[in-house]
Design goal:
about 500 residues; Cytochrome Bc1 Complex, Chain C; Cytochrome Bc1 Complex, Chain D, domain 2; two-stranded antiparallel ribbon; 19 helices; binds heme C
């Protein structure tokens, strides 16, 4: 082709191709070595879906929520797009962490890749920044209150706390200035930073070559990587790992493409079947709302809950600072030339301890918030205090002797088949109707087998609480569809046709 010749004469495409595509890679690269490129793939997915959503999104408290609703309901494939972006965000965090764990366990952060490691640490925090700023943008209850909590935590830092809150919120209160600020960070600053860091990170990988299997660099190695003899040892050994003529194309790229395809498919399925969810619009006056942060911030929140109040600042400042400190200093501190995790008992113990500890904290957080998390699964919204009181009453009145209700186990003493399941009752009835029905079922169905819970069994306040709780039970319709109320009027029905 004359065009490619023309270009080739000017920028030497052939050489570029040899350097990028045909380059040799060490033999024996595993599936774990695809995590970096998988992260890059998901980032590109985020860019594409993000750019399209930004065309519809309005970063002001008056319009943000409606613009998200518009994307969900009116834009062609809008909910799919938003779902992919939502799950893509989680995937980014998981993949970055998994990639870091791989690099850590194979000792790939050691000589000569210390700079790649540092850039990677930077990338981790940029990705977390994306998720923190992105969480606020839908301006629903969860977004508003989780950001309220997040910025409060920053504010509990000694000395600089007040300044940090002001900087993050763009004022004393969380409001319009916060939203535009987060939007600008999310779509301008962070993408620029990420692209810059990622380009440097990837150029280093190409320049230095991929890290080989750890054992290939252990035999006969000087004990420490800062030994003057180590550089020569390394380069000689590293050249040998490439002797098998494994090439980036097609040997490595094939694995990368398989992983990328699987991940994109998984994002698509999550977006299609689970979606991103949208709670009611942010209501700054509803202080009873219990926000849940993104799941990967939960271990940190759980840790905060476990320490007594006066030590809170120790955790809010200490833990992130410690994490940054350890991650940044790691390649300079750990200079022993052993790379395999089997030969680094301390590193193995630290990694296992960290994973186990975070897992335990995550489990604890999910357990503590089980009620909210569960309900978030059935109705999409955590309960208000009134509704929680109603749920407690439903439990103590033993409605589950006859009914299937929410998360309550059917009572084995009764016969749950005798009565309709109440799991979607809020989809069909208003709280007002439910109140009058519970008070006097025979008012609606003269032959109703449902016992009356009117006075003196339950007070009107209690019946109201039960009714409010029942009206949150919407099954899998959750918040996505408007309820289809089929309330009958509270006048006696002549005869039930049974
Ligand atoms: C002894 C069994 C029994 C117990 C206990 C019971 N119910 Fe019922 N419930 C029924 C039966 C049977 C029906 C269907 C009767 C009808 O159609 O009028 C019913 C119907 C209902 C309905 C209407 C459902 C619909 O889809 O229209 C609601 C709401 C309800 N019950 C709430 C409650 C609540 C709340 C409690 C506890 C405070 C409770 N029930 C306890 C037997 C029971």
């Amino acid at each position: 082709m004359s065009i490619s010749r023309w270009i080739d004469e000017r920028i030497d495409l052939q050489q570029l191709r040899a350097d990028l595509i045909d380059r040799r890679v060490p033999w024996g690269l595993t599936w774990w070595h695809t995590l970096g490129s998988a992260t890059l793939t998901v980032f590109m997915v985020q860019v594409v879906t993000g750019v399209v959503m930004a065309m519809y999104y309005a970063p002001s408290p008056d319009h943000a929520y409606d613009s998200i609703r518009y994307i969900e309901h009116s834009v062609q494939s809008g909910s799919l797009l938003r779902g992919i972006h939502h799950w893509g965000a989680s995937a980014m965090v998981v993949l970055v962490l998994a990639h870091m764990i791989r690099v850590f366990s194979l000792g790939s952060f050691k000589y000569p890749r210390e700079m790649s490691w540092l850039l990677g640490v930077g990338l981790l925090f940029i990705v977390l920044g994306f998720s923190f700023t992105g969480y606020l943008l839908p301006w629903d209850q969860k977004a508003y209150w989780a950001t309220q909590v997040g910025t409060n935590i920053a504010g509990s830092a000694p000395l600089i706390g007040g300044l940090m809150v002001k900087l993050l919120r763009g004022g004393a209160q969380l409001g319009a200035a916060t939203l535009t600020r987060f939007f600008s960070l999310h779509v301008l600053l962070l993408p620029l930073l990420l692209i810059g860091f990622a380009l440097l990170h990837i150029s280093l990988v190409i320049r230095q070559g991929m890290a080989p299997r750890p054992l290939a660099l252990e035999e006969g190695a000087p004990a420490r990587t800062n030994d003057p003899a180590y550089a020569d040892y390394y380069h000689e050994r590293y050249a040998k790992t490439k002797a098998a003529d494994t090439r980036f194309w097609p040997d490595m790229i094939a694995k990368d493409v398989v992983v990328a395809t699987v991940i994109i498919l998984a994002l698509f399925l999550m977006a299609y079947f689970v979606g991103a969810g949208l709670e009611p619009p942010a209501d700054p006056s509803d202080t009873s709302y219990v926000p849940l942060p993104e799941w990967y911030f939960l271990p940190f929140f759980q840790l905060l809950k476990l320490v007594p109040g006066k030590f809170e600042a120790v955790v809010t400042v200490g833990v992130p600072a410690l994490i940054v400190f350890v991650l940044v200093l790691l390649p300079f501190f750990d200079r022993r030339s052993k790379r395999s995790l089997f030969h680094r008992p301390l590193a193995a113990a630290v990694l296992a301890g960290t994973l186990f500890g975070s897992g335990l904290l995550l489990y604890g957080a999910l357990r503590a918030d089980r009620e909210n998390v569960r309900l978030a699964a059935t109705t999409g919204v955590p309960l208000t205090s009134l509704e929680r009181a109603g749920r407690a009453l439903v439990k103590s009145q033993n409605c589950s002797a006859c009914h299937l209700i929410g998360d309550q186990k059917p009572d084995s003493s009764g016969d749950v088949n005798k009565a309709p399941s109440l799991n979607e009752v809020g989809f069909r009835h208003t709280a007002g109707w439910l109140h009058s029905f519970i008070e006097s079922p025979t008012r609606f169905h003269p032959d109703s087998k449902m016992p009356s819970y009117g006075l003196p069994k339950l007070s009107h306040m209690e019946m109201e609480e039960v009714a409010r709780y029942l009206s949150t039970l919407r099954g899998k319709h959750a918040m996505s569809e408007a309820p289809q109320i089929v309330d009958t009027f509270p006048e006696p029905v002549k005869k039930m046709e049974h």
